[in-house]
Amino acid sequence: MNVNNMRYLLLLLPLTLLAQIPGTFRVTGPVAPTATNSNYGASIPVYNYGGLLTGLGSLSELQNLNIYPLARRHAGQMAVLTNGVAYQLGSDLTTWTTYAGWTNFQTVNNFTVKTNLTVGNTIVSTNEAVFDGVNIGQGAGNAAGSTRVGKNAMNGSATGTGNTAIGEQAGLSLTTGISNTLIGNNAAPFLTSSGANVVVGKDALFYATFGDTVPGTFGYTNGTHNNIVLGVNAYYNLIKGRNNFAAGTFAGYNVTNGSFNVLLGTHSMNDLILGDSNTALGESTLWKNQTGDRNTAVGHQAGYYSTGDSGDNVYLGYNAGPTSLTTEYNKLYINNASGDPLIFGEFAPVPYLKFKGRVGIGGLPTVGTALQSTDLGQWININPATADGQIHVLNTGTAYSTMGYNGTTNVNAWGAASGVSYYGNAQAKPIEFVDGSWRMRIIGTATNTYVNINVLPTSPTGLTSGVLWSDSGTIKAAPATNTSSIGNFVVSTSGRGVDFSATANGSGTMTSELLTDYEEGTWNPQYTNLTPPTTPYTMDVLSAQYVKVGKKVTVNAWIRTSSVNTAGAAGALRISGLPYAAAVYPNGYAAISIAVARTWGGDYPSGGYVVGGSQVITLEYRTTSNGATTDMDSGDLSTSASGNTLVFTATYFTD
Questions:
Q1: Per-residue buried b or exposed e for 627-643, using 16+ beta carbons within 10 Å of the residue's own CB
Q2: pLDDT at position 579, please?
Q3: Which of 83, 446, 455, 467 has the fewest CB atoms inside 10 Å of its own CB, making it the most exposed?
């Protein structure tokens, strides 16, 4: 078959098919409707019958179309009048009834389809499609200038501009919020007046509600604003927070109030409830932290067990951080596995670093006792990966410090490159520092150890606290710049002293081995009574001293009276004025020893005792050599001058 024959066949084929329709005849020219008030649509692909009729002005005009051949009619056929009312043809192919599912189809700003909107064989929407900006989905709100796709997306009386909500109930409650992008089923469904949020993921930012009272501004100070949340259930419970970034399923899942956090990874900061300025990068990082601030964790499960309000910590590496639930602050962990970190440190209160392993900074030294010209520069090498195992420190120039064993001898020195100062066995000087006339030398062997310190002149000035020095073989201490105190060891804190706990204990019950006090001085003994006299007795104290060692006080005295008036006196005769109160009953009671008793008016004192809990001594006498002791009273006193002489001593304990 040639090309011309093929063209002829293709021209005849549609005419042949048209002839198969009853009530029609073959034509060889164009066919067009003769009516001018109706457009006979033909969109059903079966023989071109049925179809949508438009351009009709009234129902009567539509009914006149019943003369339309039955073969061209189709049950369910639609017709839309020029006033926008739609009719549908019944199954009898005669009756036209109003179609309630179609309310408007006009050339206006909106395009609405309230049946199935079909493209090809795909149903785009089974409910409603609205194009105004873009608004697709049933009940998708009425805010102009926003894009809404999905059932109940941005539903309600939304007035904020620049929002995008895609997914069922995405931004469901949004009202005055602006510039939000919400993608995913239930993405931020309770957000109201918040702005500048980017939320992607099912149930992401689910409970966020709070917004500024003044909408439409970007200077947000409160509410839920400027957040980027990516991932299913990410920041699920956040109610109030701003300037957060969260990416990962369940990232920040339990956070209710937090700002300035950066979370990247599934379950990162999963248990955080309230916290700001945290950075968690990696799966399950900072999982157990609940109310902490300013933590940084990088690596799988870094800071996982940091709990409570742990804050200001840095965790770097796989599983870096504590190995069990721990509340901590200002810590540094650098590691690649659970357990003791390679580097541990604290930022406060006293900053420090601890290294698990060898540390080298700047390079390795030349092994040996003296530095080489090639060693110039600055470096520190602690426990290097070399056979010498030394610690080397080099400063600019030739000054250096070396400590360790080089494999042959101890080569440990401080000072210049010539090596004038040593620590170790080199030159038989275990420790020696030399700087002009200042020297410290410590030498020890298995059988002999001694210290030689010779750093200060006989009368040094300008010394600081804690300087120990030698003067002609005598060790002295300079506790302060006041040289008058040189030679004394000063206890600076009450309760501190000399600890003898290393010594053996007696057979009794030991209660303390700390010597905390020493004192000596004079005291003022005074005769008196349980009820003192109206006029105190006039005393003549020839001698009265005391010594206190720890809690033990020893007193002695040589006393007498120069004038005595006993008027008003009653009760036991006493000596008052002890330098320290005795311990309370029964520990404070102690006997006195009387050496001399002369010129008394009645009975003579033979002994006495310190009254516990007081600063007095009660005097006793015996009526017979083997009789019981009895309290003396004022009637035993002599009223003559230089009477009532007594020489005695007493030792007692204080509390």
A1: eeeebbbbebbbeeeeb
A2: 97
A3: 446
Helix (H) or strand (E) holding 460: none
Phi, psi at residue 375, to the nearest 5°?
-90, 0
Shared-domain flag, residues 398 and 437:
yes
- pLDDT tens string 312-355: 999 999 999 999 999 999 999 999 988 889 999 999 998 988 88
Pairing of strands 129-130, 112-113: antiparallel
Listed residue (27, 23, 66) closest to 47, CA to CA: 23
Average pLDDT, the chain: 74
- Look at the block and give the residue holding tokens 């002839």: 19
DSSP code string of 480-503: SS-GGGTT-----STT--EE-TTS
What is the side-by-side order of every strand in the sheet holding 86-89?
Answer: 53-56, 78-81, 86-89, 96-98
Q: How many domains does the chain have?
A: 4
How far is Cα 180 from Cα 160, in angstroms, rounded to an integer?
9
479, 524: one domain: no
Query: pLDDT grade, residue 566 (50/70/90)?
Result: very high
Distance CA 264, CA 284 (A): 9
Among residues 415, 417, 420, 413, which one has the least CA distance to residue 391? 413
Instruction: Tokens for 498, please give them.
Output: 């000399």
Instruction: Kindly state whether residue 506 falls inside one of the protein's structural domains.
Output: no
Q: Which two tokens stand for residue 210?
A: 């709070």
Q: Which of 485, 503, 531 is the last residue of a domain?
A: 485
Last residue of a domain, one of 98, 127, 150: 98
Q: Are residues 14 and 41 in the same domain?
A: yes
Same structural domain, 560 and 624: yes
Q: How many residues does the chain have?
A: 655
pLDDT of residue 194: 83
Q: Output phi, psi for 169, to 5 deg.
A: 60, 20
pLDDT exceeds 50 at position 15: no
Burial level of 32, CB count in 10 A (0-12/13-18/19+)? exposed
Assigned domain for 351 exists: no
> Do 442 and 471 reside in the same domain of the chain?
no
Spatial contact of 184 and 167, defined as CB atoms under 8 Å apart: yes
Residue 323 φ then ψ, to 5°: -95, 0
In the beta sheet, which residues pair with residue 8?
Answer: none
492 in any annotated domain:
no
* 112-116 CB contacts, 8 Å cutoff, 24+ apart: none
The yes-or-no verdict on residue 476 having pLDDT over 90 is no
In contact, 110 and 130? CB cutoff 8 Å: yes
Phi, psi (rounded to 5 degrees) for 293: -125, 155
> pLDDT tens across 231-282, in order?
999 999 988 888 999 999 999 999 989 999 999 999 999 998 999 999 999 9
| pLDDT value at residue 74 | 75
Q: Which of 108-117, 291-300, 393-402, 471-480 is least confident?
A: 108-117
In the three-class reduction of DSSP (H, G, I as helix; E, B as strand; rest coil), residue 151 is classed as: coil
Give percent of the chain with pLDDT exceeding 90: 37
Same domain, 474 and 447: no
Quote the domain boundaries for residue 554.
518-653
What stretches of 20-113 show up as alpha helix (H) in DSSP?
Answer: 59-63
Instruction: Enumerate residues 6+ apart whose C-beta is below 8 A from 493.
Output: none
pLDDT tens sequence across 78-118:
777 766 677 788 888 888 888 766 654 444 444 444 444 44
- Which three-class secondary structure state does DSSP give residue 18? helix
> Is 362 inside a domain boundary?
no
- With H, G, I as helix, E, B as strand and everything else as coil, classify residue 190: coil
Are 555 and 629 in a shared domain?
yes
556 and 636 both lie in a single domain? yes
